């Protein structure tokens, strides 16, 4: 009789443990779904607010150029994200077109010392660049 009671208690403990784990898995799946849905809502809301994406060809040469340009743009009001691909020398910029224009973004890059599409680098800023960041530096 004691063995039966012991087995019954052990069975109850196992049943409760399995049930609790199943509920925990359901909760985690629910939270993951809510996070993904929340991200989708943010993206769709962002597009409704005038976010645009542009690619601008620069005269960047190296990682220092990349850091300098990305930092300058990411600190510029209206710019959401800037990412330079050194292979193509093109920078992808996501920005709020209600706050900044594509021409203003090109000018911001030029003011950092680099060419931006058809906008030439600001001469004063260009002269302060390290030798490796100037045209022909690499």
Description:
- With about 140 residues, the chain is α+β, with helices and mostly antiparallel strands.
- The protein has two domains: about 1-50; about 50-135, Alpha-Beta Plaits, CATH 3.30.70.
- It has four helices and three strands.
- It has helices at about 1-50, 65-75, 100-110, 125, and strands at about 50-55, 80-85, 90-95.
- It has a three-stranded antiparallel beta sheet.
- Strand 2 (about 80-85) and strand 3 form a beta hairpin.
- The longest helix has about 45 residues, at about 1-50.
- The radius of gyration is 28 Å and the shape is elongated.
- The N and C termini lie far apart (about 85 Å).
Return Rg in Å.
Answer: 28 Å
Total strand count, please? Answer: 3
In the CATH hierarchy, the architecture of the largest domain is: 2-Layer Sandwich
Number of domains: 2
Mean pLDDT, to the nearest integer, reads 79
The helix-and-strand class reads alpha+beta
Strand content: 15-25%
Estimated helix fraction:
40-55%
- Principal-axes geometry comes out as elongated
SSE pattern, N- to C-terminal:
HEHEEHH
Q: pLDDT under 50 segments (min length 5)?
A: 32-46
Q: What distance separates the N and C termini? A: 86 Å
CATH class of the largest domain: Alpha Beta
User: Remind me, CATH topology of the largest domain?
Assistant: Alpha-Beta Plaits
Q: What is the strand arrangement across the widest sheet?
A: 1-3-2
Q: Major beta sheet, specifics?
A: 3 strands, antiparallel
Tally of contiguous helical segments: 4
